[in-house]
């Protein structure tokens, strides 16, 4: 790996943007909104289901419609940001996300809510890669970039838990609709601030769109996520023709996408981005971390509300130690990354988070929060803080500015697809575990709760295994050292 500054002397000596820290605040606000929306609706879902008359079978589409559109369109969104302009894409994504949120907040039927959530996913697929690409091209000095990525990584790791708290507050003290409508003022502030504070940038040279690649990869990701979602439903399962058919179709389409990208002169995802060993390992670790994290939050919410009888807001507050641990650890990880290099932090983060999952797997029907839940949450938060901060940095090391949007989109896509696949996997393990427990135990007043907890415990154990696998991938593939982290004004790594 070599590091070389390129470009004219004038470009190389250009001073940093004096508005860059204000721009970071705007980008962080937008990223927080996108991350929050992945979980804020979960708390509101029971109320929305009752008011709109949504069946138990169809309620999962409130979550899945967003995941399908977001995960399926992220790579295309990254290329649009590169070619059309990252600031312009950022502003359009924010405005569109607000409009989609208004449609969802005012929905009168279940179908309207599903459509609004899908539309949120479409604009989120523009917004998320544009945000990270702007961060990459705005902060070019090594230490400043590390701090900026520390903020971004903390939001990526802790924002989901904040969404649970905010969702509980809005649902309990206002109305479930505000879990969507709250995005409107946030987006308005971000758009108004972005126009004067964020500098425009775009890729130069070959900026033609890879239409065949965009169609095939979008179809492949949607098919894969849809197949895994169906596999996690009791009505279908892993052996159904629908589940296996969509998963197989997704795999085939993604293989075709690789062939298209190898032959294309203007690929949607240049294969040099994921085939770099360290970056490739980071993307795999990102997928696995997304799977383990979202699965944990989902079943932890069920445990709080169904078994422990917590209210929505109490359930959200009970998750706060995880967020606090992520935020506290992110600062430490940012400072240590230039001393130890990213690999030790990432590997340790995966193992610490896995140990936290293992602690949660020991819960019971009568377990105390302080002794059985809190330690696990803190360990998971520490682990995610150590993992996500260097992960965001390594995933973009050596990426040319021309490819910043595509590389940024790939980070978000791996986390989103990982979350959808992980939720389906853990839901399947949970369901089979509950069923076997009920069949093997004599009826009793507490049997149902005991079966639920047994299922949660099984899911947490699998979550621990997934996070431990992420650590193993980091140890095997990531080779970036502290000396190889960007330190110059303009950095290209070969």
Overview of the molecule:
- The chain has 494 residues and is an all-alpha fold.
- The protein folds into two domains: 18-209 and 268-493, Up-down Bundle (Growth Hormone, Chain: A); 210-267.
- It is 77% helix and 1% strand.
- The chain has helices spanning 9-12, 20-37, 40-52, 61-84, 86-105, 110-138, 142-173, 178-181, 183-197, 211-231, 241-263, 272-275, 277-307, 312-318, 320-340, 342-360, 369-394, 404-440, 447-477, and strands at residues 3-4, 492-493.
- Strands 1-2 form a two-stranded antiparallel sheet.
- It is globular and about 70 Å long.
Structural topology:
Layout: E1 3-4, H1 9-12, H2 20-37, H3 40-52, H4 61-84, H5 86-105, H6 110-138, H7 142-173, H8 178-181, H9 183-197, H10 211-231, H11 241-263, H12 272-275, H13 277-307, H14 312-318, H15 320-340, H16 342-360, H17 369-394, H18 404-440, H19 447-477, E2 492-493
Antiparallel strand pairs: 1-2
Helix pairs in contact: 2-6, 2-7, 2-9, 3-7, 4-5, 4-6, 4-10, 4-18, 5-6, 5-9, 6-18, 7-14, 7-15, 7-17, 10-11, 10-18, 13-17, 13-18, 13-19, 15-16, 15-17, 16-17, 16-19, 18-19
